[in-house]
Every structure is written in structure tokens, then in C-alpha cells.
Amino acid sequence: MFAFLFKPAQTPYPKDIRSLTSLRFFAALSIVIFHFTYEIDALREGLPGRFYTGVDFFFILSGFILTHSYIRAIEEGTFSARDFYIKRFARIYPVHIVTLFLSGLTTAGSIVLVQRMFDIGDSPSCFFSSILMVQAWGIHSRPCFNNPSWSISAEWFAYLLFPLLAAWALKKKPQAVMLLSSVAIILLCILFLYLGKPFTHLTAQGFIRIVPDFVLGIGLYLFGRKYELRKASAGTFYAVVGFMFLCFVLNIPDAMIVLIYALVIYVAAELSRQRVDTALEGAKLVFWGEASYAVYMLHHVIWEALPVPVMMRALDGSKVFDAPFWAACAVALVLTFILSKYTYLYLEKPARAWICRAFIPPEKPKD
After folding, report:
1. What global pTM score does this model have?
2. Residue 321 carries which DSSP code?
3. How far is CA 189 from CA 182, 198, 208, in A?
């Protein structure tokens, strides 16, 4: 049906799909923008985009990348669930636990200074759930302590299911997997809109939100492994991104935005496969893509550490604190990038490597 667009894949994806690494930075940045502008009415209502859906981009991308990394081992029967879980734990937990405790300190400081918590969902039980990374499994009614970490809890849920989901997807046609997950996203968006809680706003119930996105990423990779674009070019990618922003401006439903994210990921991956040189392949963007997890996890903690304008506005109920609020935004943004760089280099990477060395036995040399 779409033979004019696709042909059987002749070249596998490269081991390191640099274009997708770079896109992680922009997805993280969209969440930073969302959180830093949420309190500013003019920006929240005027920006042509729903930046909170950047999390859904991450969820689809996660399914795609994990399938890229592990599907061959699953097919060949050499996949080790134990090693997989250790590697995923090593990837997310060190930064998560550090930012969790930092968030706990900012909550304690807010209580002492203004007798008010930054996030009203903060509680001892939610702190304990966050240590176990289960806080977004429907246990609590609100996210808590370093608000963005709900998505890490959701990711952990998807990681636990990944071997089963990947094995199931391998038994189906990729088109069927993508169609089923896409229909699930659309139906869930309709259902939760009817229930009064948009699907793309689910946080404390993030385990529901991630599954169809994650499965879409799995199916998308399996499709890309079989079919490639007849011709990928930078112009094709920019056209798809332009179409995405047009959809933002036209305010189309979130479900369609999420599906367009899958198209962006597929085309970007094609750029790397077909060796199309774009800015996404640049070393600086790739570095910030690798550091995007630190950006994502640190920005809200830093914002919590500069709570005075937000707290003063909340307590006063007026907008008279706009000037210090804007100053706090600028300071928080600069600190986010500075601290994220060093967190990635001196905490995230070394801790991940240490955990993997300590708990995963080295591969035996082949005869």
C-alpha cells in the first residue's frame, strides 16, 4: 500500500543511533520549559505546544531503543533478564535516589521557612514508595518528591514487562503491534477525557500511561528493522518536525501528537541508518542527549530550591512577584545545565559502570 514510501530494509540500524540520542535532549528540554512556565499564565496559555507530552516521546523512544539493544538476544535465546534489570537499574537509580533525597531536603526547608510543602503530594509513605520506584503504580493520588520522577517509576514498570512485551511482539507483524498500540492510545485518551482526567496528564497512574507508548516503540523498531524509507533526507525530517509544530498550533488532540512523535522517531532513526549528516549527529547535541536524564531529573529539584517567588505568589494570591519569578526561572535554567553536566559525568556514568561491574559477571571469551 505504501510501497512508494518504504522498501525492504537493506541496512541495519547502527549500534549507536546518534540522532535519537540528540532528540532525547529536546524532549527533556520540553519538560523543563513546561515546568518553568507553568506558573506564568501568558506563557502557559500562549506557547504553541503541549510540552508535557514530551514524556510520551520518551516512553516511545524507550521502547524503540531497548528493542534495538536486546531484540537479537531475545531471538537467539541469549537474553539474560537478570543482567537486563541490573543494567536498567544502574541506568536510572543513582541519579533518582540522589535527587529524591535532595527533594526531601527542599520539602523540609519549605515547611520550616513558609510552613508549606512545594508539592502537596509529599508524604512519608510516598517517599518510601519513591525509594522503591513504585510511586506511579497507582498507589498514591498525586506525584511527590521531585515531581518528574513519576515517569521513572513508570519506566521501571515498563522495564519489568519488557521481556514479555518484546517476546509477544515478535510473534506479531510489526504493523499489527503498531496498530494495536495506536488504537489503545486513542481509546485511552477518549476514556480518560470522559473520566475528567486527560490520559496525557496521568502521573501518579503513570504505569497505565507508559504501556501503549512503550509497545508502540517496540513495534516501531520491529517495523524499521524490516522496512526503510526509500529516501531519507534532512528535508524529510524537518518537514515532519514542521508538521508536528503545525499540529501544536492547530491544537489537535494529544493522541495524534503522540502518534506523530512515533513518526519523528522513525524518520530520525532513518537519518542515522542512511548516514544523512544533520545537526542531530553533532557531538554537542549527542552529549546533551546523553546528559538529558540528568537535566530531566535535576531541573525540578533546582526549581524547588528556589521556591521563594512561587511560595510568595501562592501565599499572596497575586502576580506582584513576577520580577523575582522571572529571575528565578533564569537562575534555575542556568543551574540546571551546569549541574546536569557534572552530574552526568561524575555521578551517573561512574555509578552505572560500577554497578554493572559489581553485579554482572564478565562475558567469558569465546573459543
Report:
1. 0.92
2. T
3. 11, 6, 11
